[in-house]
Amino acid sequence: xxxxxxxxxxxxxxxxxxxxxxxxxxxxxxxxxxxxxxxxxxxxxxxxxxxxxxxxxxxxxxxxxxxxxxxxxxxxxxxxxxxxxxxxxxxxxxxxxxxxxxxxxxxxxxxxxxxxxxxxxxxxxxxxxxxxxxxxxxxxxxxxxxxxxxxxxxxxxxxxxxxxxxxxxxxxxxxxxxxxxxxxxxxxxxxxxxxxxxxxxxxxxxxxxxxxxxxxxxxxxxxxxxxxxxxxxxxxxxxxxxxxxxxxxxxxxxxxxxxxxxxxxxxxxxxxxxxxxxxxxxxxxxxxxxxxxxxxxxxxxxxxxxxxxxxxxxxxxxxxxxxxxxxxxxxxxxxxxxxxxxxxxxxxxxxxxxxxxxxxxxx
Amino acid sequence: xxxxxxxxxxxxxxxxxxxxxxxxxxxxxxxxxxxxxxxxxxxxxxxxxxxxxxxxxxxxxxxxxxxxxxxxxxxxxxxxxxxxxxxxxxxxxxxxxxxxxxxxxxxxxxxxxxxxxxxxxxxxxxxxxxxxxxxxxxxxxxxxxxxxxxxxxxxxxxxxxxxxxxxxxxxxxxxxxxxxxxxxxxxxxxxxxxxxxxxxxxxxxxxxxxxxxxxxxxxxxxxxxxxxxxxxxxxxxxxxxxxxxxxxxxxxxxxxxxxxxxxxxxxxxxxxxxxxxxxxxxxxxxxxxxxxxxxxxxxxxxxxxxxxxxxxxxxxxxxxxxxxxxxxxxxxxxxxxxxxxxxxxxxxxxxxxxxxxxxxxxxxxxxxxxxxxxxxxxxxxxxxxxxxxxxxxxxxxxxxxxxxxxxxxxxxxxxxxxxxxxxxxxxx
Lengths: 363, 428
Ligand SMILES: Nc1ncnc2c1ncn2[C@@H]1O[C@H](COP(=O)(O)OP(=O)(O)OP(=O)(O)O)[C@@H](O)[C@H]1O
Ligand SMILES: [Mg+2]
What we know:
heterodimer, A: alpha+beta, Rossmann fold, CATH 2.40.50, 2 domains, 23% helix, globular, B: mainly alpha, MetI-like fold, two-stranded antiparallel ribbon, 19 helices, flat, binds adenosine-5'-triphosphate, binds magnesium ion, transmembrane (chain B), MetI-like_sf (chain B)
C-alpha cells in the first residue's frame, strides 16, 4: 500500500444500498494519496460508478464517511466539492460552443471575462483543440469531444478529478492515444485522478494503483505489476490478464511452495498463495505466456504432455489451445520470433513452467 | 485490366467528363439507372400527393378565390352592369336607358325567382338594399310601365340617388376586395373610397384581437401547467411515468364533446364547483360565480383540451436530455437552480417552441369549445366564420376571414422560423 498517513481521499467503511435490500458497496475502506492516479477496475455492476458518484456527491453513502482533504464531505453538495468530473458520454452541453462548455465552470465561479478566456484557451491548447473553440460539440469527433470534456473538468484547477469510463466509447487506436495523453496530463498537472474502467489493459497502462472491485468489495489494491504478477486471489487472477486454470487438491505444503494433485492425476508444483490446508481444493493460475513449449529436460519442475488442439495466428505471437493435464482449454502463447517452434494441430509435445509462475489460489 | 478488354476506347475523350467504359457520360448512365427507382418512388407517394391536393391544397385555393370572387351581379344583371360601367358618369341618377335595362333584367330575374340573390349581394354593401330590390322587382313585374325612371323613383326615391347606383356599380366588379375589407372592419363607399365601417358594425377587429388574446393566454397556461408535468414525466421511473402518461393521454381518447360537456357540468352556476363553494360557505347562494358561457369557460376548457399538445413535445425532448448533463453542470460548480436554468432549460426550448406553436395554432382556429361554452364573450373568430358559412350564407366574408386567419398563422410561423428556426423544432 502507498502512503496511508495523510490520505487525500479516504473512504471510511462506506456501505451503499439503493433499495434497502442489497448492498451495492460493502464496507469500503480506501485511501487515495495526493497526486495519485488510482483506477477502480471491475466487471459491470461491481459498484465502481456508485463509489465515484458518492465521492462526487450525487449519491449519499448509506453508511460511513468520505473524507476529502481531512474534511468529511457527506453533507457537502456536489457543486461545492470542487471536484472535476468526466462522464462516460462526455455530457457536453449541446447548446453551448466548445469554448463556452470549457468556460462554464469559470462562469459559475464568477471568473472575470478576460481571465476566463485566457484559461479556456490554455485548457483547450492543453488538449490540442485550440482551434475548435467556436464549434458546437455535435461538430466534433468522439475523441475531440472527449478532450473537451477533459479540458472542462480541468479548467477550474480542481485538485481531484474523477473519470468514469471516459474512453469507453472510443475505438482502440484512439483509446490508446488518449490513455497516453491522459497519463501525460496527469503527470504535468499533478492532480489526483480517480479513474473508473472495466478494461484491464487500460488500467494496467495508466494507473499508479488499481483497486480491483467485485461484488461491492475491493479484491486487491496494488500496483499494476503486482496485480498482474502476484494476484492475491482467484478473481483477480482471472480478471487481470489471460489465465490458465488448473483445479486440484493440495497434497503437501513446504514453506511458500506446495504440491498439488491436479484433477487429472498429474502432480504440479506451485507457489502456495492461498492454499495452506492439506487436502484443500485449490485453483492454480498460470499466465499463458509463461508456458514453454518443449522445454529442455530437467530445466523445469513442471513438465507435462500436451496435444495441440487449435492454433491462432496473431501477428506478434501464436495462440495455441492445448490439452494439458486433462484440460482442453489450456492456452499457450508462443512469441513469433525467428526460430520459434512450429506447431501443428494434432501434434503431441511437452509443455513446462516454473514454480514461481504457477500460483495456487483459493478455489 | 483495361488493356485486356477489346471494348476499351482507344483514348480518353477530349473533354474531361467522366464516362463509363463504353463512352456514355457517367451522369447519363446514373440517371438511367436511377430513373426506375424514382418512378417507383413517385408511384408510391402518388396516392398521398393526390389526397393532399384534393383535400388540402384545392380547398384552401378555393377558399382564397372565394374571398375575392364576386360573380352575382355579373351573371344576374349583366347588361345593366356593363352600361353602368361605360355610360354613367356617377353624377346623379343614370339616364332612362339604364333604368330600362335594369327593369327588363329585374323582371326577368324575378320571374326566374333569382332576384333575391341580387338583393342579398347588395345588402352586404348597404343594409336595406335587399328589401329595396325585392320591393321594386315585385312592383314592376306586376304593373310596371315606362318611363322607368319615374316608375322606379315613385316606388322608392332611393333610386333617384346616385349613391344607390354607385353601390350597384361598386358591387358589380368580377373580383372584389370588399370581403377582405369587411373582415378588417373597412368598406368601400359608393364612390369607391376605403372607409371605416360604422361604429356598430366594427366587430371583426375586436374578434381577431380577442382570438389572439385567448390563444396566447391558453398557450401560456398550457406551458405553465405542461412544463412541470413534462419534467415530472421525464424524471419519474418508467412504471410511474407510464401511468401518468396514460392520464395525460386519457383526454385524447374521450370525445371532445364529452370533455366539453363535463366542463359544463362542473362549471355552470348550478354546477359542481359552485355547489361546493356554496356548501363550504365561501359563496352565498345568490353570489354563485359565472364560470361558463363566457371567456373564462372558453379559456378553462381549451387549456384542458390542448394541454397534451404542449406536454407531449416537451416531454419527448426532455426524454432525450441525458440526466448526466445536470450532474455535469453541478460537478462544475453550478447550483441546482443555475444548472436547471442554464443547462436543462435551454435544451428543452425546441420542445417548448413546438408545443407552444402547436397549441397556439390549434387555438387560433378553435371552434367547438367556444361555441359550446363560450357564450357571447368567449366567442372566437372561427365562430363568426361558422356563422357566415351556415347562417348568413355570406361565404365571401367567411372565406376572407379564413384567409386572414391563415395569413396570421403563416406570419407566426415565419416569425418563429426567424427567431428560433423551424429546423430546431422537435415534436418527438
Ligand atoms: N440509481 C440506481 N438505483 C438502483 N440501483 C442502482 C442504481 N445505480 C446502480 N445500481 C445498481 O448498483 C450496482 C452497481 O452499479 P454501478 O453503476 O456502480 O456499477 P459499475 O461498476 O459502474 O458497472 P459498469 O461497469 O457497468 O458501469 C448495479 O447492480 C446496479 O444495478
Ligand atoms: Mg459504471
